Amino acid sequence: YKRQVHRLDNAASWLAYASALRARKQYPRAVEAGRKAVERDASGVDAQYELAQALIAAGRGPEAVEPLQRVLATNRSFDSEAALFALGRIQRTSGNLEAARTALEEVASRSSRPEFLYELAITLAQSGRRDEAARVLQRIISEAELVPHYLKRSVRPWVRKSRQGLRRLGF
Description:
Blueprint: H1 2-8, H2 11-23, H3 27-40, H4 45-57, H5 61-74, H6 82-93, H7 97-110, H8 114-126, H9 130-144, H10 152-169
Helix pairs in contact: 2-3, 2-4, 3-4, 4-5, 5-6, 6-7, 6-8, 7-8, 8-9, 8-10, 9-10
């Protein structure tokens, strides 16, 4: 497969190769292939996003901020809010809580996925906004009651974490 990628040497082949390497948990090689995809098509949001995902998987989150910002400059809802969520998470773990809060609040305004809301709650709690964090955690618990039966299993861990979070916050 690698020979074909080198022979074709275009953004699409490097992008597919990077994705395959990332799926195989070969993160350093996935980063390398992602960079080559970006070199071939610097304006391609898919290449930028694949590079960002590879960087995050390789434990190099802060380096993923720039490609994520390029993606988000084109489409704020890219990959069903996952790009903006990834940016917010990186910003939080890097200590940029205000930027993280802004990104995660934007995500939460368009999505009620519990993992997105939970990350926002953590960010709010770390920022000293305990009441707001508690409201977000309560939102996760409340919205879980409305989830269809076939999705309950995937939501249950987030409800448990939210209840634990509320206890830690003293609510």
